[in-house]
Amino acid sequence: MKKLVLLIAAAMFTMLSMSADTYNYLNFVNSSNQITQFSTTGLRMTFNGGKAIVTAGGQTQTINLASMAYMEFTNTQAGGADYLKGDVNGDGKVDVSDVNIVINIMLGKDDGSAYDGRQFVTDGDTTVDVSDVNAVINIMLGKA
């Protein structure tokens, strides 16, 4: 009985000490780095038969989990419902021009306002740094 009480107390202490981050968007990224983004406001997900059924904003979409590389929560809004991760300028490909844009934003030579958040490639934060540059280069080289 004493062990059970200690276990419950430890579990409660752990739960109280954890804090959850709040994110505004959920991204599903497929193996081609195409991103499908949903607002987390009113987000509902169910899983059935290898598919995620996502309802957000009053619309429902089915995502095939077999083609999904990963999913991530972020605070950065994508330029549209689907975009190619790393394609900062939105021209449909990830190339040196995207790397140059991210470097210029990182160095303060570009304010990034024209890119609808696509310049935040790595972790969904609102800081463009070397990790974002590396991510675009890796995507361009097919390593991500």
Give your account of this protein's structure.
The protein is of the alpha+beta class. It has a single domain, classed as Type 1 dockerin domain (Orthogonal Bundle), CATH 1.10.1330. It contains three helices and seven strands. It has helices at about 1-15, 95-105, 130-140; strands spanning about 25-30, 35-40, 45-50, 50-55, 60-65, 70-75, 80-85. Strands 6-1-2-7 form a four-stranded antiparallel sheet, with no helix packed on it. A three-stranded antiparallel sheet has the order 3-4-5, with no helix packed on it. β3 (about 45-50) and β4 (about 50-55) form a beta hairpin. The chain starts with a helix and ends with a helix. About 20% of the residues are buried.
Query: How many beta-strand runs?
Result: 7
Instruction: Determine and state the CATH class.
Output: Mainly Alpha
- Give the amount of beta strand, in percent: 25-35%
Which homologous superfamily in CATH is the superfamily?
A: Dockerin domain
Categorize the overall geometry: globular
Q: Main beta sheet, described?
A: 4 strands, antiparallel
Q: Strands across the major sheet, in which order? A: 6-1-2-7
Order of helices and strands: HEEEEEEEHH
Indicate the low-confidence ranges by residue numbers. Answer: 15-20
The helix fraction, in percent, is: 25-40%
Q: What is the number of helices?
A: 3
Quick rundown:
By secondary structure, the protein is of the alpha+beta class. The chain contains three helices and seven strands.
